[in-house]
Design goal:
Elements lengths: L5 H4 L30 E3 L11 H17 L4 E3 L5 H15 L3 H4 L11 E3 L3 E2 L2 E2 L4 E3 L4
Parallel strand pairs: 1-2
Antiparallel strand pairs: 3-6, 4-5
């Protein structure tokens, strides 16, 4: 499934994870420089006690749009979440994702429960190289 050559199958990679060549990114490592940085989105304007000026919001929306279009992701700063809470969440996530598959499967999401663990998302009919745990924050 999607193997460009038989040699890729000999790398020990499950064929379900291999994109057809026409769906692979065209970017080369040399396309990126040390000046390229993951986009930072500063939410300081949203943390004010007074509403931000419409042009400030327009600028923020434009930054998010450009980051999504050009990179597909971004980092948010000045969001108001404490460093301690971020550290705790990251630590617990690392603990969870380091568990054996059979342990993570105990909280697998399904049709009745749309929240929980899954690792079978597809992009262009090829399995993504990611694991996800979806939850709600209350």
């Amino acid at each position: 499934m999607g193997l460009e050559s038989q040699s890729e199958g000999h790398l020990g990679i499950d064929a379900a994870f291999i994109q057809f060549p026409e769906h692979r990114p065209n970017a080369r490592h040399s396309d990126f420089t040390l000046d390229d940085h993951i986009p930072l989105i500063d939410l300081t304007p949203l943390n004010s006690t007074s509403p931000p000026h419409p042009s400030t919001l327009d600028s923020l929306v434009a930054q998010i749009h450009a980051a999504c279009r050009d990179w597909g992701f971004f980092q948010v700063i000045n969001h108001g979440v404490s460093a301690q809470l971020l550290h705790t969440v990251q630590s617990e996530a690392a603990n969870f994702f380091s568990l054996p598959s059979q342990e993570k499967a105990k909280v697998r999401r399904d049709f009745e429960n749309p929240l929980g663990y899954y690792d079978t998302e597809l992009t262009k009919n090829v399995r993504d190289w990611k694991e996800v745990f979806e939850t709600r924050v209350r």
